[in-house]
Write a structure and sequence with these properties.
CATH class: Alpha Beta
Number of helices: 8
Shape: globular
Radius of gyration: 19 Å
Helix content: 10-25%
Strand content: 15-25%
Distance between the termini: 35 Å
Structural class: alpha+beta
Number of strands: 13
CATH architecture: Alpha-Beta Complex
CATH topology: Sulfite Oxidase, Chain A, domain 2
Bound molecules: ligand MTE
Largest sheet: 8 strands, mixed
Length: 314
């Protein structure tokens, strides 16, 4: 439970960030001194920014997309519309200090330092497939914590039927926001029962490292059975609502992007097929892979849409 009294003063907060950074350095030093590393840390891309990180069975054995591919082929329009832009233009994006404002139909609302949210969370690694609506996919070792566990701590009321998320609006830092390519700030949302599904994840890192800026630092949403654009980055606001919230891509083009946006090989994007996907980093001679219903997570989420016509509620 986050109490208002737990909102730290600026100086305490800075001291703690400093402490966390120093501890990370110390642990890093201990590791290089010969302590054993988790199996996955054998990859040269793996870091240890999260000491004590809990490895979970999610996605165990899946072939990971390389760190390089995950961090150089991005959609983050706040930093440009080309896939290569964010890695270049988000380099100096300031994500510390960071706070999140919680509003709407909940008992515990207010503005919370990210640290105060994280300190209550169980930080774990989950390997999830990630599927972009543009028909490419990747497999990412995300670091983060359960969205449901976090939302419960804000004590949503019975009126909370949806939860909405908002990205930072800061055109000075985010050059893409100086042009009206999208209706800023970027927004998205989930039905409450979707949000409470154990698969939903608040990610603060990848490959054992703090989230790279271009991937949505310091905290972004991961909903593995939905198309990539539902996975909103650099979140500064969470709002519990009675009515279906506004979603940026739905506002931009309602015919192409619905509120649900579940990965579905049987419902095509109006301009291209969703039946197959190209795994990022695959060689050009390798065949495309078949898109799986709900991105392969049907056994965990299909019940959420029972009786719904998914061609209408796409
Ligand atoms: N979040 C914000 N704030 N702005 C964006 O442009 N793009 C979305 C999603 N979240 C986007 C965003 C889209 S279209 C995709 S496919 C994923 O982020 C890409 O995440 P990645 O760059 O980590 O692969």
């Amino acid at each position: 439970m986050i109490k208002p009294s737990e909102i730290t003063s600026e100086s305490d907060y800075l001291k703690r960030r400093d402490f966390i950074k120093k501890s990370a350095i110390l642990v890093g030093a201990a590791w290089s001194g010969g302590l054993s590393l988790p199996a996955s840390a054998k990859s040269p891309d793996y870091a240890n920014d999260f000491p004590g990180l809990i490895k979970t069975p999610y996605g165990k054995g899946e072939k990971l997309t390389s760190f390089k591919d995950i961090t150089t082929y991005n959609n983050f329009y706040e930093f440009g519309t080309d896939k290569k832009d964010p890695a270049r233009t988000a380099v100096n994006f300031k994500t510390d200090p960071w706070s999140i404002t919680v509003e709407g139909e909940a008992n515990k609302t207010g503005t919370f330092h990210l640290e105060d949210i994280i300190k209550h969370a169980q930080i774990e690694e989950r390997i999830y497939r990630f599927r972009c609506v543009e028909a490419w996919s990747m497999v990412v070792p995300w670091v983060g914590f359960s969205l449901a566990e976090m939302l419960k701590r804000f004590e949503p009321t019975s009126k909370a039927k949806y939860v909405a998320f908002e990205t930072l609006y800061d055109p000075q830092q985010m050059p893409g926001q100086r042009r009206r390519v999208l209706d800023w700030p970027y927004r998205d949302g989930l039905r409450m029962d979707e949000a409470m599904n154990p698969l939903c994840f608040m990610a603060t890192g990848i490959y054992g490292q703090h989230m790279p800026n271009q991937n949505g630092a310091p905290i972004r949403l991961v909903v593995p059975w939905k198309y990539g654009f539902k996975n909103i980055k650099s979140i500064v606001k969470i709002k519990f609502t009675e009515h279906q919230p506004v979603c940026t891509w739905n506002v931009t083009s309602a015919k192409e992007y619905g509120f649900y946006s579940n990965v579905n090989p049987h419902v095509d994007h109006p301009r291209w097929s969703q039946a197959s996907e190209r795994v990022l980093g695959a060689k050009f001679w390798e065949p495309k892979t078949k898109t799986r219903m709900f991105n392969g997570y049907a056994s965990q989420v299909a019940h959420l849409y029972k009786g719904m016509d998914l061609t209408r509620f796409f």
